[in-house]
């Protein structure tokens, strides 16, 4: 694989009080790749994603985006936390889609997408509206551009949230269990949008329990267990040749999907 | 009382005075609410700042105002401040200052609760698209809070409008003071007080209706 490394995590640690949630995470995401994080509840997947865009501050280790440390700079041998303005600028290069959509409730679908374009990227209203229209079209919601979040279904809200993130033209998109809060019949429309994004070459770091999807779109799968990377590799390796009992057990829970679904 | 003969011409003859007085009361309430909202917002941010040197004085201000009768505050500012060598305020300015400080204390509690009730996911979504701290407040937190607190802000305006009747105590010619003056000249006590009460009632009712329309317009939150 010749693609350059976009995101590199090395020895990332994070504790909440006495509870150590991340115990030294190493991970790489190459340009244009989809990397999926799987693992049991509480294994630290969400915490890791949140560290990547500084919604949480990691305690130790490095998270490098395009080689640049996220959240701090080196001053000689000392780490100095970046100013909020600098952190905000870094976050603008990383998109995030949340489990609970988190659309701004006072803005229409179109305005949700436009806000970052005008305020963060400094685009004109007209240009932002055009970009918003483009991406809302891509997620199949051009006709709903004037709707407020409460007027949209969960699946539609999540697609707007994806449009909002991708419209910022980020280097990397983070997805944290974005279909978990959806009614089963709405899951497919969101996964469809994500798959199309992946195929368009977007670099994505995805936490998901949708194992068929993970297997289908990922270049690389990372199994997290109790704050560590227990196994990682190509989907076929991880799913077909799990090298630990814990991964076997974890995958066993989805067994019905693999054998029954087809 | 039973033989009282109503003579409503006292109202029609003084209609212009009534209308001007009502307008003054409304103006006092609106201006005080506007200033009070600014004070209240600053106070609310001070309260949630986590900085003791900011939040403690603000807490004291809010408690003192809320525990003191408004009429006393009016007297204190109007008669008391000159004792400390502050003569610059005429009685209308003095009343607006008092009512603004009074409104500010109540609005700070409204806004504090509003800020606390905003789900943190919205702030995180704002962070995730790269908005800076003040941009997050300006474009996400404040607009959402405004919609959440709109009913309380509106109710405070109605209360403040009724409270402007206390300006009569320092001879500001709003509705209550004007009614009393017309009484003194005409002795048509029942007509005048009924008319004044009717005007307070109608105005407050219209404000409540307008508020309901506004709330419907900004119902996108739920
Ligand atoms: N802000 C916090 N304060 C304290 N503990 C936290 C906090 N956030 C997460 N935790 C704890 O950290 C551990 C890992 O949580 P995390 O949300 O990262 O797991 P996860 O792998 O995403 O799980 P799930 O599949 O259920 O979403 C859990 O034990 C959780 O209770
Ligand atoms: Mg999680």
From TrEMBL, chain A:
Q: Please name the GO terms that the record assigns under molecular function.
A: ABC-type amino acid transporter activity; ATP binding; ATP hydrolysis activity
What is the membrane topology noted in the UniProt record heading this document?
Peripheral membrane protein
Report which superkingdom the organism of origin falls in.
Bacteria
* CDD domains tied to this protein: ABC_HisP_GlnQ
Q: Which Pfam families match?
A: ABC_tran
Say yes or no: keyword Cell membrane present: yes
Keywords, A to Z, come to:
Amino-acid transport, ATP-binding, Cell membrane, Membrane, Nucleotide-binding, Transport
Please verify whether the record's keywords include Nucleotide-binding: yes
Q: What GO cellular component is one of the record's annotations?
A: plasma membrane
In this chain the ABC transporter domain maps to 7-251
- What is the annotated localization of this protein? Cell membrane
| PANTHER family, A to Z | AMINO ACID IMPORT ATP-BINDING PROTEIN, GLUTAMATE_ASPARTATE IMPORT ATP-BINDING PROTEIN GLTL
Family of the protein in this entry: Belongs to the ABC transporter superfamily.
Q: What is this protein called?
A: Amino acid ABC transporter ATP-binding protein (PAAT family)
The protein's organism comes out as: Humitalea rosea
Automatic annotation (TrEMBL), chain B:
**Gene Ontology CC terms:** ATP-binding cassette (ABC) transporter complex
Q: Which GO terms describe its molecular function?
A: transmembrane transporter activity
Q: Where in the cell is it found?
A: Cell inner membrane; Cell membrane
Kindly report the protein's main subcellular placement as a broad class.
membrane
**Transmembrane ranges?**
20-46, 58-79, 99-118, 139-158, 192-214
Q: Which UniProt keywords apply?
A: Amino-acid transport, Cell membrane, Membrane, Transmembrane, Transmembrane helix, Transport
Q: Where is the signal peptide?
A: none
Q: GO annotations under biological process?
A: amino acid transport
The entry's protein name is Amino acid ABC transporter membrane protein 1 (PAAT family)
Taxonomic lineage of the native organism: Bacteria, Pseudomonadati, Pseudomonadota, Alphaproteobacteria, Acetobacterales
């Amino acid at each position: 694989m010749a693609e350059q490394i976009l995101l590199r995590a090395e020895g990332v640690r994070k504790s909440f009080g006495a509870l150590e949630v991340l115990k030294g995470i190493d991970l790489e995401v190459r340009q244009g790749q989809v990397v999926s994080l799987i693992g049991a509840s509480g294994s630290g997947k969400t915490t890791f994603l949140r560290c990547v865009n500084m919604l949480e501050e990691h305690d130790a280790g490095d998270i490098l985006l395009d080689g640049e440390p996220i959240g701090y700079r080196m001053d000689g041998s000392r780490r100095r936390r970046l100013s909020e303005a600098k952190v905000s600028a870094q976050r603008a290069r990383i998109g995030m889609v949340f489990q609970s959509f988190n659309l701004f409730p006072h803005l229409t679908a179109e305005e949700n997408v436009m806000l970052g374009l005008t305020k963060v990227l400094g685009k004109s209203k007209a240009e932002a509206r055009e970009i918003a229209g483009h991406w809302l079209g891509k997620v199949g919601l051009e006709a709903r551009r004037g709707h407020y979040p409460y007027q949209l279904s969960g699946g539609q809200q999540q697609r707007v949230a994806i449009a909002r993130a991708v419209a910022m033209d980020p280097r990397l998109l983070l997805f944290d269990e974005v279909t978990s809060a959806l009614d089963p019949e709405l899951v497919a429309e969101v996964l469809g949008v994500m798959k199309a994004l992946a195929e368009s070459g977007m670099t994505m770091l995805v936490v998901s329990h949708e194992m068929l999807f993970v297997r289908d779109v990922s270049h690389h799968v990372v199994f997290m267990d109790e704050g560590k990377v227990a196994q990682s590799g190509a989907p076929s390796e991880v799913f077909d040749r799990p090298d630990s009992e814990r991964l076997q057990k974890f995958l066993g829970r989805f067994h019905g999907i693999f054998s029954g679904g087809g | 009382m039973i033989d009282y003969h109503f003579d409503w011409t006292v109202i029609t003859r003084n209609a212009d005075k009534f209308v001007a007085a009502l307008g003054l009361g409304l103006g006092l309430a609106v201006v005080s609410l506007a200033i009070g909202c600014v004070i209240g917002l600053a106070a609310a941010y001070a309260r949630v700042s986590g900085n003791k040197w900011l939040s403690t004085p603000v807490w004291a201000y809010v408690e003192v105002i809320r525990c003191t009768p408004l009429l006393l505050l009016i007297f204190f500012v109007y008669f008391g401040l000159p004792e400390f060598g502050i003569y610059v305020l005429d009685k209308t300015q003095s009343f607006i200052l008092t009512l603004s400080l009074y409104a500010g204390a109540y609005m700070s509690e409204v806004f504090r609760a509003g800020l606390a009730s905003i789900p943190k996911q919205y702030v995180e979504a704002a962070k995730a698209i790269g908005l800076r701290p003040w941009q997050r407040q300006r474009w996400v937190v404040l607009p959402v809070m405004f919609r959440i607190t709109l009913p309380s802000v509106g109710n405070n305006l109605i209360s403040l409008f009724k409270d402007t009747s206390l300006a009569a105590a320092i001879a500001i010619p709003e509705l209550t003071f004007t009614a009393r003056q017309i009484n003194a000249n005409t002795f048509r006590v029942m007509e005048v007080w009924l008319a004044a009460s009717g005007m307070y009632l109608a105005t407050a009712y219209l404000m409540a209706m307008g508020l309901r329309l506004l709330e419907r317009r900004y119902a996108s939150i739920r």
